[in-house]
From TrEMBL:
This is ABC transporter permease. Belongs to the binding-protein-dependent transport system permease family. MalFG subfamily. The chain crosses the membrane at residues 24-46, 88-109, 121-140, 152-171, 209-232, 252-275. Residues 84-275 form the ABC transmembrane type-1 domain.
Length: 290
């Protein structure tokens, strides 16, 4: 005998079906949000393709004769490539050290209870509350005392002060979702605590590591305040500081600024595409308790 599923309640279909008015409102909201999101990017790209004479007239007409002159000037007549290389070096070092420090710290506070545990947790939380404007002066004095002004290590250290507390707290939440039975199995097999972390736990934490790497990279890639204060030589500028060279006292080179902004966005977009499948899992890990 073939069993039949019980019929749905009479009002179930009407409850699930969205009314025309709600459907129209939802679609209009999504369209408006899409326009708001896409417009700045589209304006940036289109402006970068306009000749300087058209930009200076503040014309909003469509581009009649698009040109790559702004890109050619940025890449050939400025130190953009030097600034880009500096930003890549600083961002990659910050990302690697940020992931290493935040992962080890997050694992330690997730698995072990030691003297000062609560103090460490409070420190990770409170240090995220200080704005950059408050930290610039003390960190600058510290770096000056160490002779690191106009050196890349000063930027890396400054960026780690903001990325490690956030990423460590996030990684702690992620490691809390990993069963402790895996650690116990590692100890039974003779692994040390670090061996258990490195060989068993870390491979399971790829989503969390991806978020930590992405956050650390983007923080260093787009940061302006520390780089402006610490880097005094044109050959040590990062991209965010280098763009300020296109803004004069009475005039801004909008063609160069927009072309540079498009080029700067490309590496960030590439990094996002590489880690995007891990971002949602990594960001939501620890949000619910198993």
């Amino acid at each position: 005998m073939v069993s039949r599923a019980a019929p749905a309640p009479a009002g179930a279909w009407s409850r699930d079906r969205r009314s025309p008015g709600k459907s129209i409102a939802l679609h209009l909201t999504l369209i408006a949000a899409s326009i708001v999101s896409v417009f700045p990017v589209a304006w940036l790209v289109l402006t970068s393709l306009k000749p300087r004479t058209v930009i200076e007239t503040a014309s909003v007409a469509p581009i009649d004769h698009p040109t790559f002159a702004n890109y050619t000037q940025v890449l050939g007549e400025t130190r953009f490539l030097t600034w880009a290389a500096n930003s890549v070096v600083v961002s990659l070092i910050t990302a690697v050290l940020g992931v290493l420090l935040s992962a080890t710290t997050g694992y330690a506070v997730s698995r072990f209870r030691f003297p000062g545990f609560r103090s460490v947790m409070w420190m990770l939380l409170i240090t995220q509350m200080f704005p950059v404007a408050i930290l610039i002066v003390p960190i600058y004095n510290l770096m000056a005392g160490l002779g690191l002004i106009n050196q890349f290590p000063s930027l890396v250290i400054a960026y780690l002060t903001s990325t490690v507390p956030f990423c460590a707290w996030m990684m702690k939440g992620y490691f809390d979702t990993v069963p402790t039975s895996i650690d116990e199995a590692g100890r039974v097999d003779g692994l040390t605590p670090f061996g258990t972390f490195w060989r068993l736990i870390l491979p399971l934490a790829k989503p969390g590591l991806a978020v930590a790497a992405f956050y650390s990279f983007i923080t260093a890639w787009a940061e302006v305040a520390y780089a402006t204060a610490f880097m005094t030589g044109d050959d040590k500028y990062t991209l965010a500081v280098g763009l300020s060279q296109f803004v004069g006292q009475h005039k801004a080179e909008w063609g160069l600024l927009t072309a540079s902004s498009v080029l700067i966005a490309i590496p960030a977009a590439v990094v996002f595409l590489l880690v995007q499948r891990h971002l949602v899992t990594g960001l939501t890990a620890g949000a619910t308790k198993a």
